[in-house]
Amino acid sequence: MKFSTDEEAIKLANDSRYGLGCAVFSGSQRRAREIASKIHTGVAAVNDFASSYMCQAILSLVFT
């Protein structure tokens, strides 16, 4: 999804009916963490997406 400001991106994410996980990408680690902290989600990944999927896969193996 395209957005013009960080606030618009946060609003788009928080207005979604889904919210189990998100990934925030930025050249600034601090900025990405700040944005991720404002998104209502179960799991937030910063500058990465695969590690959260890997953790979910491991947990599903352990608890099934």
What's the SSE blueprint?
Elements: H1 6-14, E1 21-24, H2 29-38, E2 43-46, H3 50-62
Parallel strand pairs: 1-2
Which descriptors would you attach to this protein?
globular; 3 helices; alpha+beta; 64 residues; single chain
The total beta strand count reads 2
**What is the SS-derived class?**
alpha+beta
**Residues in helices, as a percent range:** 40-55%
Strand order of the largest sheet: 1-2
Keywords: NAD, Sodium
InterPro entries: Ald_DH/histidinol_DH (IPR016161), Ald_DH_C (IPR016163), Aldehyde_DH_dom (IPR015590)
Domain Aldehyde dehydrogenase: 1-53
Protein name: aminobutyraldehyde dehydrogenase
Walk me through what this model shows.
- The protein has 64 residues and is α+β, with helices and mostly antiparallel strands.
- The chain has one domain.
- It is built from 3 helices and 2 strands, in the order αβαβα.
- The chain has helices at 6-14, 29-38, 50-62; strands at 21-24, 43-46.
- The chain has a two-stranded parallel sheet with strand order 1-2.
- The mean pLDDT is 88.
Nutshell version of this structure?
Keywords: NAD, Sodium. It is an enzyme of class 1 (oxidoreductase). The protein has one domain (6-62).
